[in-house]
């Protein structure tokens, strides 16, 4: 199976880390509160401190490594007739989207992505939306227009 | 008529005046419960109560008649130029313009009152979200069929202009074929052109469909449960208040049995009357179905809009060698049931499994051939069984252990300490056994295959479901591999199609990774064999995928 081979913009790792850090921060705060309650309730510090440390360590490790792995896994390719995507951390998914099935293409960016000068290319079929999550602004716009042009093909028939 | 949107409303027509009567009856039927309640609550009253009730009824009827007259008065419709225009609304005027080229389907529906009066509703389906259905109520049947022909004919002309391929249109005008609405009145035939094939479901099959329907099985289970409950209640009341020389239990059982039979019979009748006289016919590029005893429904479906064909067998129907055939379509906005789930029209509500293929050959030859399938490999069995069983065991074990420890603290008696671990073990065994057994069945039934036109995926544990997805209607294909699957060279294949306006995923788990990749290549337009040119299929497709 021909594998897609174009990577995302490496700055996406920063964007993902910002998002993940927000979540991780919440989890750590909740863990701290839980640890505090456990301490008051009389659970020994020998139990509470390592448990809290473990939760915090997992969170930090997740923020540090998950974007790295995800970035390395992410590959995409846009050929004349089809789009291929490969993504996933533990479960790797490869998707084929024929150009004739593309209904419309958008680019989108959140505040973090905008600051980094990144944009996502969202590819909609009649069924659902697929996304190339981060390319540089210009590249994303250019790709969007290219897909839009390529997708302007008539239907290839029915049943 | 005149082109553009400057069309004056004078070119539009009202619906049939008798529509007022139909509307009145419909509103009145909705109010009937209120009236019933009124009568019941003031039962045995005097003259004044009777007068008051009559007054209320009269007022209600007048109101209903007035309301439907106002609705009728302000409703106009017509085909002007290339648009269907519908003007409605009393306070807020609403003008709906539907380009005829956007009309996806036109149904004719008639409930009992309409049929007595020789009227029918026309429901126009359009592509796209929002208000995807427009209803023109109560016009004469002949006019309804004329309108339907008009709308569909233009639609078909546009279709034909887009591509000159129209399978099986040998001189017939399929859209002219209208149902004769075999009703109480019976519409006169409209210069009918005979369709290429027609299947009428025999009555015994209808009854069988009712008896084996899921709703009925559920009802049966509920009744049995209710019966037990009732027995228990009765039993208690008997022990509490002894009745002299009267054994209540058998009586209750008989009564319960009778009740159960009655409910089953009613449920069967409901199902049978819904599908009564079910007819599926093929007319050129359209499939038409028609059914119903009291309310007759006709649905036309362009074959080109079919996204998937499903052959389904519930556990019970599998044992009896029966199957149902459904077609998934895109874009039918309005057709949903009470829960908002889009109704997938059954092409064949129930047929013998052996008849599915011959019937499909006549009704839907484009989708009659199902590719040879290949099963999931042997080594996939443990991937099917292990993880779900362990998960079920962990969930049940944890919950059970928590409950058990709570129970032990509450009732610290010796028999409890002995009984609970035993119960817990038995529960675990049952849950794990059931999970494992169903997963083994899923592994055994899993199948997939592709020929030059379509992908076929089979799944199911006790029941079976086989779905045929034409390549040109699959929106995307994905191949997923978890860490464990990668090590075992297995993969999960997902083909996504459209159902209504949402995505519908068809999945086969844990198949050989190279097979999954082959299907992805088969789907890919850029791969050498699987180009969009379906006329030159890779001879390998079917063979390569079959064992």
Rg of chain B, please? 29 Å
Averaging pLDDT over every residue of chain A, what do you get? 89
Quaternary structure state of the chains depicted: heterodimer
Strand content of chain A: 25-35%
Structural class category of chain B: alpha+beta
Order of helices and strands of chain A: HHEEEEHEEH
Structure report:
- The complex is a heterodimer of chains A (159) and B (547).
- Chain A has 159 residues and is α+β, with helices and mostly antiparallel strands.
- Chain A has four helices and six strands; from the N terminus they run H-H-E-E-E-E-H-E-E-H.
- The mean pLDDT of chain A is 89.
- Chain B starts with 18 loop residues before the first helix and ends with a helix.
- Chain B has helices spanning 19-41, 47-73, 112-117, 141-162, 203-211, 214-240, 248-275, 315-319, 356-363, 381-410, 414-445, 483-488, 513-523, 540-545; strands at 76-80, 83-88, 94-99, 103-110, 119-126, 133-140, 197-200, 279-283, 286-291, 296-302, 306-313, 322-329, 346-352, 374-375, 447-450, 454-459, 464-470, 476-481, 490-499, 502-512.
- At the A-B interface, strand 3 of A face strand 18, strand 19, strand 20 and helix 13 of B.
- Strand 3 (92-98) of chain A pairs antiparallel with strand 18 of chain B.
Keywords:
heterodimer, A: 159 residues, alpha+beta, three-stranded antiparallel beta sheet, 4 helices, B: 547 residues, seven-stranded antiparallel beta sheet, 24% strand, globular, disordered N terminus, disordered C terminus
List the helices and strands and how they pair.
The complex is a heterodimer of chains A (159) and B (547).
Chain A: H1 12-41, H2 45-73, E1 75-78, E2 82-87, E3 92-98, E4 102-108, H3 111-116, E5 118-125, E6 129-136, H4 137-150
Antiparallel strand pairs in A: 1-2, 2-3, 4-5, 5-6
Chain B: H1 19-41, H2 47-73, E1 76-80, E2 83-88, E3 94-99, E4 103-110, H3 112-117, E5 119-126, E6 133-140, H4 141-162, E7 197-200, H5 203-211, H6 214-240, H7 248-275, E8 279-283, E9 286-291, E10 296-302, E11 306-313, H8 315-319, E12 322-329, E13 346-352, H9 356-363, E14 374-375, H10 381-410, H11 414-445, E15 447-450, E16 454-459, E17 464-470, E18 476-481, H12 483-488, E19 490-499, E20 502-512, H13 513-523, H14 540-545
Helix pairs in contact in B: 1-2, 5-7, 6-7, 10-11
């Amino acid at each position: 199976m021909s594998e897609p081979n174009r990577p995302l913009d490496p700055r996406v790792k920063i964007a993902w880390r910002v998002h993940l850090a927000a979540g991780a921060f919440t989890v750590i705060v909740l863990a701290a509160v839980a640890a505090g309650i456990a301490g008051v309730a009389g659970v020994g510090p020998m139990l509470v401190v390592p448990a809290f440390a473990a939760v915090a360590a997992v969170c930090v490790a997740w923020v540090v490594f998950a974007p790295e792995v995800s970035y390395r896994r992410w590959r995409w390719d846009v050929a004349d007739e089809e789009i291929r995507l490969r993504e996933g951390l533990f479960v790797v998914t490869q998707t084929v989207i024929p150009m004739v099935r593309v209904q419309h293409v958008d680019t989108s960016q959140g505040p973090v992505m905008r600051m980094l000068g990144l944009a996502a290319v969202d590819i909609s079929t009649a069924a659902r939306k697929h996304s190339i999550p981060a390319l540089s602004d210009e590249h994303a716009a250019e790709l969007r227009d290219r897909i839009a042009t390529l997708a302007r093909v008539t239907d290839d028939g029915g049943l | 008529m005149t082109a553009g949107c400057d069309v004056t409303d004078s070119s539009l027509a009202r619906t049939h005046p008798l529509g007022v009567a139909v509307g009145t009856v419909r509103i009145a039927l909705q109010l009937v419960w209120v009236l019933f309640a009124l009568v019941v609550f003031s039962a045995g009253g005097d003259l004044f109560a009777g007068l008051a009730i009559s007054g209320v009824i009269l007022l209600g009827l007048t109101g209903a008649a007035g309301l439907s007259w106002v609705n009728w008065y302000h409703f106009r419709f017509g085909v002007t130029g290339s648009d269907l225009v519908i003007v409605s609304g009393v306070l807020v005027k609403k003008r709906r313009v539907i380009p005829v080229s956007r009309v996806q389907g036109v149904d004719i529906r008639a409930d009992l009152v309409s049929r007595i009066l020789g009227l029918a509703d026309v429901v126009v389906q359009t592509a796209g979200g929002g208000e995807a259905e427009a209803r023109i109520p109560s016009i004469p049947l002949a006019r309804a069929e004329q309108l339907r022909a008009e709308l569909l004919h233009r639609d078909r002309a546009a279709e034909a202009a887009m591509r000159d391929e129209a399978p099986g249109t040998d001189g017939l005008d399929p859209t002219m074929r209208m149902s004769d609405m075999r009703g109480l009145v019976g519409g006169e035939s409209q210069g009918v052109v005979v369709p290429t094939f027609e299947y009428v479901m025999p009555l015994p099959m209808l009854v069988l469909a009712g008896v084996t329907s899921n709703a009925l099985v559920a009802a049966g289970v509920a009744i049995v449960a209710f019966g037990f409950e009732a027995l228990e209640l009765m039993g208690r009341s008997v022990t509490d208040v002894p009745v002299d020389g009267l054994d209540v239990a058998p009586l209750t059982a008989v009564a319960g049995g009778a009740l159960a039979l009655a409910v089953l019979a009613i449920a069967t009748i409901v199902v049978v009357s819904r599908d009564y006289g079910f007819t599926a016919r093929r007319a050129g590029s359209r499939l038409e179905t028609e059914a119903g005893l009291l309310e007759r429904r006709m649905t036309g479906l362009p074959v080109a809009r079919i996204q998937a064909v499903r052959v389904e067998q519930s556990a019970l129907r599998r044992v009896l060698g029966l199957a149902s055939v459904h077609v998934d379509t895109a874009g039918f906005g309005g057709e949903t049931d009470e829960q908002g789930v889009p109704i997938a029209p059954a092409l064949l509500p129930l047929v013998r499994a052996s008849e599915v293929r011959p019937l499909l050959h006549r009704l839907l030859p484009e989708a009659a051939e199902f590719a040879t399938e290949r099963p999931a490999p042997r080594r996939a069995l443990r991937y099917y069984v292990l993880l779900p069983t362990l998960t079920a065991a962990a969930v049940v074990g944890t919950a059970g252990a928590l409950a058990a420890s709570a129970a032990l603290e509450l009732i610290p008696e010796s028999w409890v300490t002995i009984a609970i671990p035993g119960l817990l073990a038995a529960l675990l065994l049952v849950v794990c056994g059931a999970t494992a057994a169903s997963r083994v069945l899923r592994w055994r039934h899993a199948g997939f295959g592709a020929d030059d036109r379509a992908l076929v995926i089979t799944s199911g544990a006790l029941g079976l479901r086989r779905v045929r997805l034409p390549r040109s209607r699959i929106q995307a294909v994905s191949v997923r591999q978890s860490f464990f699957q990668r090590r075992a060279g297995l993969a999960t294949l997902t083909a996504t199609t459209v159902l209504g306006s949402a995505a519908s995923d068809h999945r086969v788990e844990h198949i050989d990774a190279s097979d999954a990749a082959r299907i992805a290549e088969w789907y890919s337009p850029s791969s050498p064999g699987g180009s969009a040119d379906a006329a030159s299929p890779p001879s390998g497709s079917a063979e390569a995928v079959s064992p």
